[in-house]
Structure formats: structure tokens, C-alpha cells
């Protein structure tokens, strides 16, 4: 995931804006978005082997997406830090 590799807040904000725009334009459904987040969450242990800060960065990115109003609360509750 671009946000995890970058680790920069600007990247997280930009990608969150892109995902929000795609959701608003109905290019991505809520179910597809949820599946993507859950897929990353399910593989976070493996991702952390290459990027040790992955879990924290993903938590922060998820918070940004939730604040923008397009990430369901059910996904946010599944995060380890929540």
C-alpha cells in the first residue's frame, strides 16, 4: 500500500481524498472499500516484515478515512489499536 511505503501524512491525505472521490462517484462501492481494508488488515503481520511501522501507519490512515466519512465504523473497530 502506497501510504504504508511512504509513511508521509501528505500521501495519506492525498490517497484518502482519492478514495473519497472514487466512492462519491460510485467507482468504488462501500463493500469493495471494506474488502480492501480488511484484506490489508488480514495481512498486516506479513506487511510489517517489510515495513515495521505498517500497523501504526494503517491505523492513522484508517482514522483519516473515517474522518472523511467514507470508511465504515465496522472496519475501524476491527483495527488492533481500536
The description of the largest β-sheet is: none
What's the N-to-C terminus distance? 21 Å
Q: Please state the structural category.
A: mainly alpha
Strand content: under 5%
User: Which radius of gyration do the C-alpha atoms yield?
Assistant: 12 Å
Poorly predicted ranges (pLDDT <50, ≥5 residues)?
Answer: none
Shape: globular
Mean pLDDT: 89
Binned, the helix content reads: over 70%
Count of DSSP strands: 0
Order of helices and strands: HHHHHH
Number of helices: 6
Task: Please give a structural write-up.
- The mean pLDDT is 89.
- The protein has 82 residues and is mainly alpha-helical.
- The chain is built from six helices and no strands.
- It is globular, with a radius of gyration of 12 Å.
- The longest helix has 16 residues, at 9-24.
- The chain has helices at 2-6, 9-24, 30-42, 44-50, 54-67, 73-78.
- α2 packs across α5 (54-67).
Amino acid at each position: 500500500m502506497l501510504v504504508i511505503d511512504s509513511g508521509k501524512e501528505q500521501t495519506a491525505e492525498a490517497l484518502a481524498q482519492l478514495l473519497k472521490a472514487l466512492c462519491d462517484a460510485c467507482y468504488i462501492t462501500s463493500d469493495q472499500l471494506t474488502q480492501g481494508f480488511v484484506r490489508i488488515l488480514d495481512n498486516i503481520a506479513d506487511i510489517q516484515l517489510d515495513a515495521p511501522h505498517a500497523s501504526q501507519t494503517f491505523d492513522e490512515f484508517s482514522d483519516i478515512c473515517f474522518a472523511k466519512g467514507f470508511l465504515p465504523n465496522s472496519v475501524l473497530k476491527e483495527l488492533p489499536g481500536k
